[in-house]
């Protein structure tokens, strides 16, 4: 009963659950606190107010379809909320939240039909019949989130009404979609990974077999063709034949997670390698600096290779969550540290970005460039999903807020894992790690103000007599200047896993020093949208330039003229203000930036913080001053080398 | 009865119809021939085969809605075909086409109901009731195209069954949507301009008043809000208060045409100036080099200012046609030559681009960049509109092919106009112009191989005793080297209208020499998508780099290293082949183009020709080699200065 969303039975790394790895302070503790005090309650109250929870009551009372509210997949958002509550109760034992959970679960399970079917949108007189719209109906997708909620509850508490309802539903799915049943899949992948996890948790091999069937059927065209093409729901190419992720980004990432799970549990190495290859190309060519995916608003989909426009970045928060799911599974399967790098990138720059500082509004999409100040939606307004130019309290399609909630509530599970005799520290936060690798119990206390500072101190509190083996992740961005200091002896550390040479003993202190100073990042020259631009990162944080709506200059009116550095005002970078010639036709002979002053130090902020102070303009990628063509001279101040 | 789609009663310029201005040879004559021999018949046979024409028969025979095919707006495509046929019959008198027209019109008018209502999608048992879905139903939009067809017929032939049916339909619209009727508008603007034109043609002032009501209601939120927002159908801001065009590009351009028409006929100068300002900003900030508009696939809509991605350019063919409609009306209203420049740009780079060389397939969207070779749709396949990566024979939404057909069939109308005693030559083709300005009849013979060559020779065949005044357009791109030669005396000519100093007499020869050699074009530095890239134009033609799918190097693997020039192989430009370092993460410290050879001359082709030789990669905007950062030296060949 490891309290982690994913507990594979095979693979290099064995995860530690929140019982054994507990965030104790710092960046992530604050976000978990925000989740506990604001986000979960916010999601609950919106879904109650809009009737999405009430749909289950209406089902019990025979008031469907007349009284149904919300989109066809609204049940799934309730399940994600239940999952978040289950993790949170497991983490804190909050009795009030526990009562709230029980009352919510009672309303849900009451709506389950005798044969296990559970969905408020289909199957009643006046509704579409069951499984009559696999392309868009989301019935199996909803089950997926039900199973994930049940996994969370089972791993933090044990069997209860929710878990039993999920078992009945899973049995029903196997009956209807198993061999000899409906030979198709859900338009929105999600159930695949959930079925494998539920098989792991319940021990029922039928659920794994059902996941395997869904994975094998995907890509064989069992779903109808649509205007976006079958790649929208990854039904264009069998998974093991695809070269790269494509179509709807959330669907692709959820499916990838399910394919990894299935490959791991069935020992299907060719499938694992196929997905590994797809993820590698996706990361190299179809991923934003933030880790986000989805370059197209239309179809919420990946673009082609190198097609990564900043301004139209869709980069849905849920695609970030799905990417974390996929990379976490690949990390556990292979033990390769770069997957943990991607999880870190996604946590700091997508998951942490979505919620407002007060936890009461959310980015659904995560653009990397806002040219004109947006409009802040009213606190009681339901926004269209992607049209929202700022964080919005709720969306007509509101998958993202509860997805953030369940991720934050289960964040402890990403901290550490074991392999043989070694404890692996994957993500850094002040925390306490208790593990039982081969050789004996180990307890580590981690102290750090990461990512503000780069020093991570690991104190060995408990270890076998002969000592313990530990490994710490050095991110790929820390390729110059990372050091491992063991009991005062400092060694150069390269990206990947760095290990003290000798076993560590009680009282030992291991310090990892990561170079978190700001650094310029250049894009691959094949990305047209980023040509002539640079970005700044500091440690795992993507930085951005933000200007309030009433600032005299917008972010468009600056050019980079030097290197970023830490200062008393945080990260600053020398920028030259520029102005532009106005033309009636924008494609003229020799246009140029027109420098309108000397370079000045301008503060950058972490991307996750942007948009918290009202309407603004924002850029992650900033154009570099074109020295040859600037119409006026400029000068770099003395403070910049 | 001027045979032109637009004949305003006010304004600086009075258009000549096809009776008086007739294309006689060259580029446009060949396209008109293609239209006559292939495109019109192609559209007719597809709409017959798919049952879109048969919908009218089904209406007569009481087989609706069971037997209806096509989208809700398919009637409008039949009307656009009828309009194309009407112009074509007027142009050529083709008796076979005339019979075909009469049979088609008979089938359409038979479906009209006694009160004038005519639509195959609404109003019958089992269908939505009339005008129950103004947002998406397109009923008024369909009438708009019916009226435009009737205008074409009336101006080339006179009253017939089609014209009488259109009168009944227009009377019906005025009754239902006039003062005291339904206080709303159509989700797809189109009827506004059509009603004004029909008022001009029939003399019935009610039609103008109805157009005025639609124009005034637009932007007051009479349509429901939708996920795209009301800007999708320009119902967000009253027309006279808007700053720029936005939302669905075709709708915006059709509406603009209608607003100009209404302003002209009602003497509403503030409305005219509001739209003039919107068009100016749209041209300066939201228009592609090709003249195309629509930067977003989602909502087929404009992007924000400076948001003009090449790869995701939507640039719908119909938006190009709508832009020509808007600019032609503004040209006639103001007499400003730059509007004719835009029409020329749109004709050569959008209208001429859409149809394949054989006239049997069409671009719906007109991308400026294709990174991976597409797939050629089968000749008998109906394609989704935007997913089609190549020209397709037909689309589920097939507005574009018949829009191209009606534009080509009425192209003569764009050649020339008169103002007072002066004949204005707006567009250049070998042609014969017969006009009656103040002072007496004038006949001009124009000879040119433009745009291949830049020499346009105008011979005065008929003129009053005292001579005639003529004006010729010098495009804005011809700002260096244009010359006007009058009877052998050569003068420098600047962009705008250039006029021989003295009246011209019978036997005189006026030659305009335009510098059509290839030239580099730079983008405004605010367009992120084009930073560090240049394009090549030659005369009015946008050029592009195209590489067949089986070429060793794709268009991505070249960098511009010099100036383009004419050669025996057409336009060539020195390009350096480059290769790229492969990384698992695309945002690394110091990526660079890696020059992999010396510069070589590579041929460019006119953009309108691309995609005619099977799957290929294509770029209009080409990256410039970054001299400072190229990893290897390169050299420009001797032939390039």
Description:
Two copies of one chain form a homodimer. Chain A is an alpha+beta fold and 641 residues long. Chain A contains 13 helices and 26 strands. Chain A has helices at residues 27-49, 54-60, 74-92, 95-109, 139-156, 161-177, 191-202, 205-217, 249-266, 269-285, 317-334, 337-351, 400-409, and strands at 14-15, 21-25, 369-370, 382-383, 394-395, 416-419, 422-425, 430-435, 442-448, 455-462, 469-474, 483-486, 489-492, 496-498, 509-513, 518-521, 533-538, 541-548, 558-560, 565-567, 570-579, 594-595, 600-603, 605-606, 616-619, 622-623. Chain A has a seven-stranded antiparallel beta sheet with strand order 2-8-9-10-15-12-13. In chain A, a hairpin with a 2-residue loop joins strand 12 (483-486) and strand 13 (489-492). Chain A starts with 13 loop residues before the first strand and ends in an 18-residue tail after the last strand. The model of chain A is unreliable at 636-641 (pLDDT under 50). Chains A and B meet through helix 10 and strand 16 of A and helix 10 and strand 16 of B.
């Amino acid at each position: 009963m490891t309290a982690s969303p994913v507990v594979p039975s095979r693979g290099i790394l064995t995860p530690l659950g929140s019982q054994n790895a507990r965030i104790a302070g710092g960046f992530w503790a604050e976000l978990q606190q925000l989740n506990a005090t604001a986000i979960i309650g916010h999601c609950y109250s919106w879904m109650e107010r809009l009737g999405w929870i009430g749909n289950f009551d209406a089902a019990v009372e025979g008031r469907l379809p007349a009284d149904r509210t919300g989109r066809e997949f609204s049940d799934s958002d309730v399940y994600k909320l239940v999952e978040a509550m289950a993790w949170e109760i497991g983490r804190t034992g909050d009795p009030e939240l526990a009562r709230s959970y029980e009352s919510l679960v009672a309303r849900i399970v009451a709506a389950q039909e005798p044969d296990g079917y559970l969905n408020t949108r289909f199957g009643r007189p006046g509704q579409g019949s069951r499984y009559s719209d696999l392309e868009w109906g989301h019935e199996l997708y909803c089950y997926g989130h039900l199973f994930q909620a049940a996994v969370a509850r089972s791993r933090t508490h044990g069997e209860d009404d929710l878990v039993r309802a999920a078992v009945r539903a899973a049995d029903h799915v196997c009956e209807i979609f198993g061999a000899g049943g409906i030979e198709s899949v859900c338009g929105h992948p999600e159930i695949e990974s959930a079925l494998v996890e539920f098989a792991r948790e319940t021990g029922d091999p039928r659920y794994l077999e059902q996941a395997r069937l869904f994975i094998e059927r995907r890509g064989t065209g069992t779903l109808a063709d649509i205007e976006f093409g079958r790649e929208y729901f990854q039904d264009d190419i069998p998974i093991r034949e695809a070269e790269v992720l494509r179509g709807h980004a959330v669907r692709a990432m959820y499916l990838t997670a399910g394919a990894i799970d299935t490959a791991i549990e069935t020992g299907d190495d060719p499938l694992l390698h196929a997905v590994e290859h797809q993820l590698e190309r996706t990361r190299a060519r179809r991923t934003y600096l933030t880790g986000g995916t989805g370059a197209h608003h239309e179809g919420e989909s990946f673009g082609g290779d190198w097609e990564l426009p900043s301004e139209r970045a869709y980069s849905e928060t849920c695609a970030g969550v799905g990417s974390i799911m996929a990379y976490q599974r690949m990390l556990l399967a292979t033990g390769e540290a770069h997957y943990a790098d991607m999880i870190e990138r996604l946590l700091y720059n997508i998951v942490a970005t979505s919620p407002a500082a007060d936890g009461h509004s959310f980015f659904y999409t995560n653009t990397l460039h806002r040219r004109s100040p947006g409009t802040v939606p009213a606190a009681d307004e339901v926004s269209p999903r992607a049209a929202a130019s700022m964080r919005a309290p709720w969306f007509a399609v509101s998958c993202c807020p509860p997805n953030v909630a369940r991720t934050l509530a289960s964040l402890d599970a990403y901290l550490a894992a074991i392999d043989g005799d070694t404890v692996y520290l994957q993500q850094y936060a002040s925390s306490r790690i208790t593990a039982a690798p081969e050789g004996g119990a180990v307890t580590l206390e981690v102290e750090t103000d990461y990512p503000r500072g780069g020093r991570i101190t690991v104190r060995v509190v408990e270890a076998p007599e002969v000592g313990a083996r530990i490994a710490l992740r050095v991110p790929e961005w820390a390729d110059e200047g990372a050091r491992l200091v063991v009991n005062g002896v400092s060694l150069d550390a390269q990206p990947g896993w760095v290990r003290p040479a000798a076993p560590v003993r009680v009282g030992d202190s291991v310090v990892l020093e990561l170079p978190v100073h700001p650094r310029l990042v250049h894009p691959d020259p094949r990305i047209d949208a980023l040509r002539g631009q640079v970005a700044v990162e500091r440690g795992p944080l993507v930085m951005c330039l933000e200007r309030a709506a009433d600032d005299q200059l917008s972010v468009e009116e600056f050019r980079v003229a030097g290197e970023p550095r830490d200062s008393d005002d945080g990260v600053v970078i020398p920028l030259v203000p520029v102005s532009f010639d106005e033309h009636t036709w924008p494609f003229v002979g020799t246009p140029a930036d027109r420098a309108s002053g000397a370079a000045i130090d301008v503060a950058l902020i972490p991307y996750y913080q942007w948009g918290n102070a009202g309407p603004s303009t924002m850029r992650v990628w900033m154009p570099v001053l074109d020295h040859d063509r600037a119409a006026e001279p400029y000068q770099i101040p003395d403070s910049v080398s």
